[in-house]
């Protein structure tokens, strides 16, 4: 099966992480998810499953982006805290291990309020208005008034999330690369205005006594290093209506769905429209159920699907039950792990993670404040 990479952590195996300095030799990775409620298979395959692998190779910070939820849900915040807990449970159920990575809540790290303000001072308005999702979301979420300062500025909040941890890599899908690019531009602009040591790169260019090698060394020693994209392989995962699996389409299979619910959801899933009667041959490459098989089923089952569908040797009901089997198999260990955590354990993990994140973020903020000269000047020597 393809889900052998799920980490075998159990609630009992969880204890406090080693101190950060034991981990700092590994490149740093940061990623987050909004607390929109229980996570679904699309979230799992698009991000979480990859994070579980990354925690073994990198120094990872994974967070629940509750401040981002405010950019669209500011009028009713009642669901944000309960959803934060659900997402944390799903993180742990999927196999994130707080001994290997730092899991935290964005709003519990006050530096996430400070850096966006400072970076907002230097981010040109045009950069924000050009972000493709700005117009798109305003058009799609017509029931919400998104003509707010907070919504326009969410890419600055996102850039701050990344830069606060001086992350080397950000794991994202193809469609989110623009956000990382904007983060890189903001970092570049910050480093240009506020280098370490107080002399700007512009100064360096003007002074004949400063050789390029010195400039290069300054660039390598920037306060806010530019993060690189770590492209996440995200397989095409259709929802039950054939569109991309997404909470807003109401077509998801949740990580918490019990077996009967999974089977029922798949029974109503759309198929290749060419298969009207049982005797009509079909094409798995044109069928959302076929796409599910490609992601979750064994090679043997997949071969049976191609053969049976194209020859009309199997019916769609049978084919869907095979897909349901594969989904149930991948969800089972996730659900068992989830059931083993108490709310108190999750709270403790989040508090511990947030405290570690605060310590790391504060290191960056001290460098930022110093570079921007936002510290009290030392009294002049007598
Ligand atoms: S047999 Fe399977 S792959 Fe073929 S159309 Fe039916 S559900 Fe889709």
Structure description:
The chain has 382 residues and is mainly alpha-helical. It has helices at 41-54, 66-73, 80-94, 111-122, 125-129, 132-140, 149-152, 154-164, 177-193, 201-206, 212-220, 259-267, 288-296, 299-310, 316-339, 343-371, and strands spanning 28-33, 59-64, 101-105, 169-172, 228-231. The strands form two sheets. It has a three-stranded parallel beta sheet. Helix 4 (111-122) crosses helix 8. The protein starts with 27 loop residues before the first strand and ends in an 11-residue tail after the last helix. Iron/sulfur cluster (SF4) binds next to helix 13, helix 14 and helix 15.
Overall radius of gyration: 24 Å
Hetero groups bound? iron/sulfur cluster
Shape category: elongated
Flag low-confidence runs.
Answer: 1-23, 204-218
Number of helices: 16
Largest sheet: 3 strands, parallel
Q: Strand tally, please?
A: 5
Q: How much helix, percentage-wise, in residues? A: 40-55%
- Strand percentage, roughly? 5-15%
Mean pLDDT: 87
H and E order: EHEHHEHHHHHEHHHEHHHHH
Q: Give the helix/strand class.
A: mainly alpha
Quick gist of this model?
The protein has 382 residues and is mostly helical. It contains 16 helices and 5 strands.
Topology readout:
Blueprint: E1 28-33, H1 41-54, E2 59-64, H2 66-73, H3 80-94, E3 101-105, H4 111-122, H5 125-129, H6 132-140, H7 149-152, H8 154-164, E4 169-172, H9 177-193, H10 201-206, H11 212-220, E5 228-231, H12 259-267, H13 288-296, H14 299-310, H15 316-339, H16 343-371
Helix pairs in contact: 3-15, 4-8, 4-16, 8-9, 12-15, 13-15
This protein binds iron/sulfur cluster (SF4).
